[in-house]
Amino acid sequence: MSLIQVLHSGGTEFAHDGVASCGTGHGWTANARSCRRTGASAQVSGCDRFFAGDGLLAAGRDGGSSVGCRSAMSSVWPSTRPTVSRGAVVISEVTPPAMVAVLRGLAANAALDMALLRPLLDSFDLLTLVALAEREDLTRAAAMALARRADPTLRRSLARNPVAAMHVWSVLVADPDRQVRCALARGHSRDFRTTVDLPLPEAAQRALAHDPDDQVRHALAYRPNPAMQVGLHLAADPSVPVRRAVAQSWRPLPDVVARALLADSDAEVRRGALLAMTPPPDLVTQLLADPETRQEAAEQAPLNSEDAAVLVTDPNPAVREAAARNRHTPLAMVLRLGRDPDEDVRAAAMLHPDLPDEAREQIAASVDTRDYHVADWLLPHRSTLAERLKHVDSRFVFCRRAVAFSPDLPTWAVARLAADEDYSVRLLLAENHPEAPADILPDLIRRAGHARWNLVNHPNMPAHALAEFAASGNDDLRRVAATSRNLPATAATQLATHDDHTTRHLVAANPALPLPEITRLLHDPDPQLAEAAAHNPHLPPRLARQLIASGDASLPKAEHDNGPPAAGHPPTPDERTPRPASSAGE
Fold first, then answer.
1. Which phi-psi region, left, alpha or beta, contains residue 368 (left: φ > 0; alpha: ψ -120 to 50)?
2. Residue 366 lies in a domain
3. 434 within a domain of the structure (yes/no)
4. Is residue 166 part of a domain?
5. Helix (H) or strand (E) segment spanning residue 577
6. Backbone φ/ψ region at 264: left (φ over 0), alpha (ψ -120 to 50), beta
7. How far apart are CA 126 and CA 108, in angstroms?
8. What predicted TM-score, i.e. pTM, was given to this entire model?
């Protein structure tokens, strides 16, 4: 696993587990027990002393021929250091055994600068290159270098990265691999790790909109903000799935596009367009009369009294429920729907914004209020803060739930909602407000499902509760605590040696973990732990530079993964000083 890189005038010599090569045609063949020189006259007289990092590797200047090689390693790995008699190369005890995994972690470490990671662009390890391709600080030169690689998986990663796509779209737009073009057309998916969303240049969109492959145009049609001319072209695409995607995704739909889609021959296209807009009044009668669009029109259209009176007696309860959700439905019709025999219809009427509290209470008494019932008209993007504050003490839990989505509530409102008897109100407050009080967070984490993974990093999360979770016999709580940036250092250190592998893996990437523990895990023979430690944002750039220098990223993955563990333990940061060449024979 340990790598040797010797720089000299004749070329670059790499030795690793079982393989060595030299730019001059001469080199070393090494394995765990023996080392022999190959070639008749290998010369290292031009080799300057080279320290790859602070003491990780050292190559000495000798001035003569390499005339022999002693045993590099004994059969008992930890007992000796590898040594060479002349032109010495020393592998320090701190060289990580899972070097390729470490380099992968460094490539994905967002806290490191791309300039520092530049040597990794020469890697043959696909996962390392993919991690680089997904970085938000990818430069144009780096993106172009990756785009020239043969593996389409790598180019797909570039295409999904909006930063990289800006640099290399002109190359990827004509890529022979259809999935690369689809990835470029679609943009980054929800699971892609990025905080930026740059629009694809219009020239790239135009090229993709004219791609002969329906799947590429279909992927492009899912973009919510296409260039106007591109969107118009896609809205008239001969492929029905393409037009459906435009109707479902383009927001807001321009009026000229909406009218065209509402008149489309495909019913799903018409329904998708209806859900994106309030249809023009001159089309309402036609849309309500169409059985394929009646339900969507009942929910979205500006209804007059006559239309509403017909809808509230519709035999289909889904149509009546849609009319109850329509903010344009006259109040008298909403009250009628509040007495509907179908509970879902009554629940929709209960949530209507214009309903008086007395009527709302009467309807609520006949409805089994669910956790998912939320007064969506009180959500932050649909209401003013003043309007939301009127409902902090509402008698209706679905109103308080909507208010709890607000990140801008004043202190008094936060305190009221934090004491709410409804668990979902407290949970929503903690998920959305940065000043949710510390005393409600531990209980929420104990009870929550997937939400606990975000709550554990709430700025007010108490350290004592995290320490308690870390010491818990409950795997879920302990693992969640292992990811918290607020985890006390002592607790993080304990988790780094826990019997549970998942716990160790999670805490290895946690910036709360002290640097000595990060360094120790970097040298763990388990590739998953080493990679997670290298991904830790607490890792100093200086140490990352040492690690990159200590390994040659251009070697294939298969030649790295199964080396013996490095002997000893890594030194403390103060002990990392260059080892003099004379130490080779110690």
1. beta
2. yes
3. no
4. no
5. none
6. beta
7. 13
8. 0.76
